[in-house]
């Protein structure tokens, strides 16, 4: 007795990887190992740490505020890797904020320094 209708599911492959490992990374996986997801997490793209700005502010403008910026910037990667996406974003914003404060502070000190020497120079003549 011949049956022309195969049983349901016969000949269909429910696995889109055709026998490979499950695709956890979101990239095409043609039977290889799972691909890690290096892209954006649930919080979006990884925020910039602003570490370079913190270092430049520390070296060129205002040491105390630059150090605070560096400390905040170094927390971004660790918070992101722990899955605290909101904390990483906040640390990035704090690092940027302290770097800006350091730049403003450095400019103010430089202007006051120049004014001081102009006043002292004018009074000595």
TrEMBL record:
The chain crosses the membrane at residues 51-71, 98-122. Pfam families: CD225. The keyword Transmembrane helix applies. It comes from the Bacteria. This is CD225/dispanin family protein. It comes from Nocardioides daedukensis. Its main location: membrane. One of its GO terms (cellular component) is membrane. Signal peptide: none annotated. The keyword Ribosomal protein does not apply. Residues 1-42 are annotated as: Disordered. It is found in: Membrane. Keywords: Membrane, Transmembrane, Transmembrane helix.
